[in-house]
Amino acid sequence: MSAYLGDAALLYLQELIDWDTYFNWRKGEASDVDVDRAALQEVLETAARICQEQEPALRAGWHECAQLEGDEVVYPRHIQETIDKLRDAGLISFGVEEEYDGFGLPSFVANVILQMVSRADAGLMTILGLQAGVAEDIQQFGSEELKRAYLPRFASGEVMGAMDLTEPQAGSDLGAIQTRATKEDGRYFLDGDKIFITNGGCEIHLVLARDDETYDQSKGTTKGLSLYLSPRTMPSGEKNGISVTRLEDKLGIHGSPTAAIHFDHAEGFLVGKQGEGFKAMLALMNNARLGVAAQGVGIAEAALNVALQYARDRVQFGQPIAEQPLMKDRLAKMTLELEGSRALLYRACALVDQNHAIGKVLARANEEANELSKAEQVEIETLYERNDTRIRLLTPLAKYMGTEAADSISRDAIQIHGGLGFMAEAEVGKLHSDAIITTIYEGTSEIQVSFALKEIGRGALTVVFEGLEQELKTFEDPKLKEQADKVLEGMNLILGAAGALLADFSYALMSAQSLAEVVASVIAGAELLKQAKTDPRRFDLAASWISRRMVDLESRCKRIKEGSADRLDRASAIIALND
Ligand SMILES: Cc1cc2nc3c(=O)[nH]c(=O)nc-3n(C[C@H](O)[C@H](O)[C@H](O)COP(=O)(O)OP(=O)(O)OC[C@H]3O[C@@H](n4cnc5c(N)ncnc54)[C@H](O)[C@@H]3O)c2cc1C
Fold first, then answer.
1. H-type alpha helices, 183-276
2. Longest dimension (CA), the chain
3. Residue nearest to atom 38 of ligand 1 (CA)
4. Which of 445, 452, 446, 432 is nearest to 390 (CA)?
5. Any long-range contacts for 423-432 (C-beta under 8 Å, 24+ apart)?
6. Is residue 346 part of a domain?
7. Which entry of 98, 363, 551, 577 is 20 to 30 Å from 372 by CA?
8. In a domain, 477, yes or no
9. 205 pairs with which residues across the strands?
10. Higher pLDDT among residues 335 and 560, named by residue
């Protein structure tokens, strides 16, 4: 077993995820859970082996950038070599279903692979993450014709995909998109410019563009946007009007090409319904947000490993620095941040998978009418709705926590290296440079906590906390129960504070980060306790997370509750001191 896979992922694979129900719902009578689960483990072990083997070359080639040669984007050699190895192992596009020649890997497995790829090279992860996300969006929203034409080519790695949203004036605010889609004789043509497009030299672009017919009325909103699949080469073999005009020079993820793209009357095929492109793109973005959370967890894991090794080897004052209490505390805190974020991510993935499987069983029930009784169908549909609410809250929280953890853990890893950490060639410096972007793309941290707040405003806390309460009340072991009671207490404090917040929207937005932190604290606390119940070696981890986080939660809730709209005015007054 490769150490790259890690104990936590194995724990979920072998014990914590209910694969019996997952495969029964997903495949019905065709499922053989032992065989299916063994296949997932084999996939993960293969990915772990490739990532571990490639890590030294990837880290050594970190400075090398993708190049624009004529009209083609060329990856650095170490990136191309690893892509080839993953492609040869069939691991180039994760969620494409079997009927389109893919493996249909669950979200949990796909995200553990992305985490391992990111641990080896965060730049490479972006290429694979988008390959998976774009294919799955086509699978979810595309016509059968588009799916048959493109998904097998995604699964084999013959084509790669990019997601084209951002424009110079449209970053976080996608309502400002100006790229225009014009309908001519039943065909669609795209004109405009996109920037910061990851893997922009690839064959398939999923483009969000504003429909010409409603261009003026819909300006400034996400209405009137449609999603188009635009290939660089048309099915006839002709070149489409898509060109890479520039590759960016960046602080990190150098192996990942970030391109400016010009669409000159490029033909696009509508994906999903006209005017509902933002909804279809949100599905991709939510998927991609879990992917970026996994990217953060992978970078954090890499930084922690390097820091731990260094702290054990470096001797000062006659002993390894890892033995100095302050260093020990820092290393423990880094481990907690990593494991707390991972717990949120894996929980979110398990919910996504459960809902995917429910979707399959409901589809079969509609076709065959005898797989589920009426009562079972109603029960499953209710679970689907509740899971959907949970996923909508957990996805931005997992993205926020995983990426902020990558940023702070990799920064701490530099500190642990002392002066060596500041040298240009330091591994931890490279990891920190890669970590920063994870808090920015796929929606910045500020956007994630605002999304979480929005879901809380819609009542998500009630649904999420109801489930948590049930779980926390099942702990019988006195040690676990004591910790579970602390989390329950924390949940009550949050409910009290959130009520006070939601009365004033501007004030609520100002406190969105605090609210996200405390909600993430209790969800991750419950999840870590679940891990500890199955693997008692993880008890100290769970207890330490809970004791540190509940102290922080109390003070944050107190501040949220006591605070007033004056805080916004006061912030303006403080900033004005710089004028
Ligand atoms: C390396 C890289 C790869 C990328 N890959 C892709 C890609 O493949 N496809 C794609 O379409 N885009 C991509 N992007 C674009 C990326 O998604 C955007 O950069 C990101 O969404 C932020 O937009 P912006 O840069 O315009 O920042 P802005 O939206 O201008 O934000 C600037 C700052 O203001 C804050 N802010 C903005 N609005 C609010 C608000 N309402 N509340 C609180 N704070 C706010 C932000 O959090 C941020 O701190 C990539 C970017 C980079 C750098």
1. 215-218
2. 80
3. 172
4. 452
5. 427/59, 427/306, 428/303, 428/306, 428/307, 430/59, 430/62, 430/252, 431/122, 431/299, 431/302, 431/303, 431/306, 432/303, 432/407
6. no
7. 98
8. yes
9. 162, 230
10. 335
Q: Give me ligand 1 centre to Cα 444, in Å.
A: 6
Find the residues whose C-beta lies inside 6 A of ligand 1.
162-166, 171-172, 196-198, 250, 258, 437, 440-441, 443-444, 446-447, 450
* Domain range for 572: 459-576
C-alpha span between 348 and 107 (Å, rounded): 9
Burial 404-415 (b: 16+ CB within 10 A, else e): bbbbbbbbbbbe
Sign of CA dihedral 136, 141, 147, 149: negative
Residue nearest to atom 26 of ligand 1 (CA): 171
Distance between CA 133 and CA 137 in Å, rounded? Answer: 6
For position 175, what pLDDT does the model report?
Answer: 96
Spacing, Cα 199 to ligand 1 middle (Å)? 17
pLDDT in tens, 506-534: 888 899 999 999 999 999 999 999 999 99
Query: What secondary structure letter does DSSP report for 578?
Result: T
Q: Is residue 412 part of a domain?
A: no
Tell me the average pLDDT across 546-557: 97
Give the helix/strand (H/E) hosting 164. Answer: strand 161-164
Rounded to the nearest whole angstrom, what is the distance from the C-alpha of residue 441 to the centroid of ligand 1? Answer: 6
pLDDT digits (tens, 9 = 90+) for 195-234: 999 999 999 999 999 999 999 999 999 999 999 999 999 9
Cβ-based neighbours of 6, under 8 Å, separated by 6 or more: 301
Q: For position 275, what pLDDT does the model report? A: 95
The answer to whether residue 327 sits within a structural domain is no
Probe ligand 1: pick from 207, 444, 448, 507, max atoms within 8 Å of CB?
A: 444
Which DSSP letter does residue 90 get? T
**DSSP calls for 316-370:** ETTEEGGGSHHHHHHHHHHHHHHHHHHHHHHHHHHHHHHHHHHHHHHHHHHHHS-
What does the alpha-carbon distance between residue 468 and residue 312 come to, in Å, rounded to a whole number? 38
Reply yes or no on whether the pLDDT at 369 is more than 70: no
Q: Which of 174, 196, 454 to mutate to test the pocket of ligand 1 (most atoms within 8 A of CB)?
A: 196
Q: Give how many domains the chain has, as a whole number.
A: 1
CB 245 within 8 A of CB 261: yes
d(CA 198, CA 161): 9
Considering only CA atoms, give the Rg of the chain.
24
Ligand 1 atom closest to the CA of 248, numbered from 1: 1
Q: Does 452 score more than 80 pLDDT?
A: yes
Judge if pTM exceeds 0.85. yes
Q: How far is the CA of 442 from the centre of ligand 1 (A)?
A: 7
End-to-end CA distance of the chain: 60
- Take atom 30 of ligand 1 and give the residue whose Cα is closest: 171
CB count in 10 Å sphere of residue 308:
16
